[in-house]
């Protein structure tokens, strides 16, 4: 029992600490998470029929909001996108530059920012969101709506305007979403499990449901 109490206290202290950090220190943490995203981007696998590679970025992007909170998770991905566009070679295959961000995968990178902001908001606002199933649902929404839709939109325009290829919706989905479903669901499950393990079930910043959590039994 003492071990469980110690672990729960450590989780609470860690999240409250990161919530109360000064802005310069939060920037340092955001840069650290951006570096993690850049590292995970190098875990990649290219499909012969698609310009969009399978990478580990999504996993890091989903966790960014949980680890850094409602604004700083999104800030970390904005740092990743901005520094990459400025020339830091940490996009997939050590690519960089504004041209890469405007390329076939740039929409997914923009989607990472939206997903991190979304998940950070719920993590900081609702204790209930930190359960496994609640977070899994939020992460699947963030992945397939907030990441994939901007990704598919930019991929469509890149194929049309740059490659001069008119593709049907089914072809677009086969290039930009369908091959990634199994991997993305697996990453979301893993990220939700990590969230369940590290996020406290106590209020650290006045969450709106702090007086209701004890009556909910969501694992």
Structure, described:
With 219 residues, the chain is mainly alpha-helical. It has one domain (2-43, 50-204): Arp2/3 complex 21 kDa subunit ARPC3 (Orthogonal Bundle), CATH 1.10.1760.20. Helices cover 66% and strands 2% of the residues. The protein contains nine helices and two strands. It has helices at 2-20, 23-40, 57-68, 72-86, 98-101, 106-125, 132-162, 169-176, 181-198, and strands at 44-45, 54-55. The protein has a two-stranded antiparallel ribbon. Helix 3 packs parallel to helix 6, helix 6 runs antiparallel to helix 7 (132-162) and helix 7 runs antiparallel to helix 9. The longest helix is centred in the C-terminal third of the chain and has 31 residues, at 132-162. The model has no long low-confidence stretch (mean pLDDT 91).
Task: List descriptors.
219 residues, mainly alpha, 9 helices, 2% strand
Strand order of the largest sheet: 1-2
Give the low-pLDDT segments. Answer: none
Q: What is the CATH architecture term?
A: Orthogonal Bundle
Proportion in helices: 55-70%
Structural class of the secondary structure composition? mainly alpha
The CATH topology assignment is Arp2/3 complex 21 kDa subunit ARPC3
Number of strands: 2
CATH class: Mainly Alpha
From the alpha carbons, calculate the radius of gyration and give it in angstroms: 18 Å
How is the biggest beta sheet arranged? Answer: 2 strands, antiparallel
Shape: globular
Percentage beta strand: under 5%
Order of helices and strands: HHEEHHHHHHH
Span from first to last CA?
19 Å
